Amino acid sequence: MNEIELKKTANDIRIGIVTAVHSAKAGHPGGSLSAADIMTYLYFEELNINPEDPKKEDRDRFVLSKGHVAPALYSALAHRGFFPVEELKTLRKLGSRLQGHPCMQETPGVDMSSGSLGQGLSAACGMALSAKLQNKAYRVYALLGDGEIQEGQIWEAAMFAGHRKLDNLCVIVDNNGLQIDGKIEDVCSPYPIADKFRAFNFNVIEIDGHDFKQIEDAFKKAKETKGMPTAIIAKTVKGKGVSFMENEASWHGKAPSDDEFAVAIEDLERIGREYVG
User: Fold this and answer.
1) What does the alpha-carbon distance between residue 227 and residue 241 come to, in Å, rounded to a whole number?
2) Pairwise CA distance, residues 6 & 37, whole Å
3) What CA–CA distance (Å, rounded) separates 90 from 98?
4) Using an 8 Å Cβ cutoff, are 70 and 112 in contact?
5) Who is most buried in 50, 192, 204, 213, counting CB within 10 A?
6) pLDDT tens for residues 78-128?
7) Chain centre distance of CA 175
8) Which candidate, 90, 89, 40, places its Cα nearest to that of 62?
9) Residue 208 burial (10 A CB sphere; 0-12, 13-18, 19+)
10) HEC profile of the chain
11) How many Å separate Cα 145 from the centre of its chain?
């Protein structure tokens, strides 16, 4: 995909996120929207995956450590062809394959069940080590929240990854600066994030998480790095694309009303028209 196609796809994924959360009357739109560009690049450019064979042995693995932003993962999977886009409207409904947090047993394309914050990186480390021990070529990617990295288990896993030189592991931190209680720097500051990962023997790349050229370059450098894992610190905007959600911590975990949904869709459709023709 070229940059315009990626931007259009990311916007479609954002429409899917807002539609799913509105339909469920619950969910986490803010962090889902901030991660949409990263998810788009992963699922449409970076990952070695096949929607027709979701469990193929040599596929790359992805772990959504901040599992509450499942709407972003589900929308990316749907638009990539793992299941119908229309199914996004079943988010959190009884009997749906798309529950509030990812479930690897039920949802095509989900490699790891997640939701208890702080645990996903440990699972990703296990997958990466397994690949090394079996001389497998697949890579492992884990998306973390910047509020999530206040959890101690994240740093235990980072220490392990650096010590084991897991250069087939790529960690992405969605650094939107906000969590449910407000600014991350006010709640329990994890800064300086980049220096912390460097201290655990990571190759660190800092980018604008909404700039596809920077995203592409970061993932390319991660693949080229040998002897250490990579952490991509992606500066993003919480609620990206929806005017009244942007940079508002209050939209961490609530659904838009019918009127708010109409405004959100209008915002995103207006953005989408910029990429047509």
Assistant:
1) 38
2) 8
3) 7
4) no
5) 204
6) 999 999 999 999 999 999 999 999 999 999 999 999 999 999 999 999 999
7) 11
8) 40
9) middle
10) CCHHHHHHHHHHHHHHHHHHHHHHCCCCHHHHHHCHHHHHHHHHHHCCCCCCCCCCCCCCEEEECCHHHHHHHHHHHHHHCCCCHHHHHHCCCCCCCCCCCCCCCCCCCCCCCCCCCCCHHHHHHHHHHHHHHCCCCCCEEEEEECCHHHCHHHHHHHHHHHHCCCCCEEEEEEECCEECCEEHHHHHCCCCHHHHHHHCCCEEEEEECCCHHHHHHHHHHHHHCCCCCEEEEEECCCCCCCCCCCCCHHHCCCCCCHHHHHHHHHHHHHHHHCCCC
11) 8
Region of 55 on the Ramachandran plot (φ > 0 left; ψ -120 to 50 alpha; else beta) = alpha
Placement of tokens 């459709």 in the chain: 269
Residue 89 tokens read as 């409207």
Q: What percent of the chain has pLDDT over 70?
A: 100
User: Which residue is it, tokens 């109409």?
Assistant: 262
